Amino acid sequence: MRPFARDPDFWRLVGYAVPIGVFAGLAGLAFVSVVKLGTDLIWPEDLALGFFDGEPWWIAMTAGAGLLVGLLRVWMRVPQDPSGALASIQEARVDWRTAPQTVLVSAVSLIGGASLGPFDAGTRSGGAFGEWISERRDLPEEMRQVNTLSGITGGVGGLLTSPFISTLLVSEIARPRSDRYYAILIPNLVAAFFGFFVFFATVGPGFLQLFEVPGYDVAEWHFFMAIALGALAALLAVLLGTSIMTVRRAVRPLAERPVLLTTFGGIALGVIGVAFPLTLASGKEQLTGAIEMADSLGATLLVGIVLAKIVAMAISLGTGFIGGPVMPSLFIGGSAGLAVHQIFPDLPLGLTFSCLLVALAGATLKAPFSLVLLVVFTVGLGPIEAAPAGVAVLTAYLLTSGLGLLGTPSAEPAGPDDRLHVAFRDGDGPSPPSSGEGQV
User: Fold this and answer.
1) Mean pLDDT throughout 244-267?
2) Under 8 Å CB-to-CB from 304, ≥6 apart: which residues?
3) CA 362 from chain center: how many Å?
4) Which residue range forms the structural domain that includes residue 410?
5) Of 217, 245, 360, 367, which has the fewest beta carbons less than 10 angstroms from its beta carbon?
């Protein structure tokens, strides 16, 4: 077999990766800028943190956002079940014809306070451009798949401001064939670098060093505690999946009335937001506030926030709002880590926060290795301090995947709600491929 670097098609893909990565970075930057502008205009700069500290008008705001989301979905004919970011990565396919409308609805969802993040829009925008340029150039199927993944990786590289983490994350979810691994990985990494450069040159480090928690001296017993924290993350992941399934089943009678469905969903999000203000929006800024005010919030309120965020995320995904699951999952895990530290103050905050921050997301996204790197970059832990977090991620991943707590990929479900892991497909997307290996 000829080495991939001597194949002219490989170099064509590297060439395509440059404009695809630039476009993905610009599209992602435009999206987060619009969401930030809209959020700053509508919502107070400093959200209240305490129980029932929210304002009653928030319910009207989220209800209005739900109404607008429903009207836009009907008017622009957004698919009822658009493939979410995770499904798009696994299938290496994004429908570029419906992507602009879906991204617009996602922006309205996030501005309106839905408990979702920008991951869906970032992957959809870049992937759609890779898909479009491949179709215009009439490229073969394998090249189209690589270009789509390059666009997705470019968007994620910008959002995370880390080309290496984004490339590894997409690679773990997509699971490309081993005989083509580097032929796919390198164009993806090139696109991720250009997407990262657009963000870094404009807004700086962004996601890096985002959460500041005190460092700690690692002791041997911390690794055993990391196993327990990973088991807790697995339990929360199952609770999250069960909640999403429950909401979807409960709203099935309203499936043919999308405007009413999203409006009811907005009202529910507003009520939860009034009771637990930190549950509004994706959770990025809210988690930073929770870290700073953890002592005054206390263990009981933090536990309530974790449970309320799980319900809010389930309602957001189940009632027609569009967005990604990554940042809300990090919020749930990080807040759970703060609560555990409040309950057991002898456990270092850096241990509990870092372990649960990424263990829950690692279990739900099925990407343990990239999530270990994520805690190093976002919390700023050293390699030794990050080792317990790695143990927690692997524990949560093995408990949910190895023991089938979130379903197994060996059999197709009878319906979209019959396996827990289907619940984590943001945007109500389809279930993952039935084989253990990706389709790329």
Assistant:
1) 94
2) 51, 276
3) 11
4) 220-428
5) 217
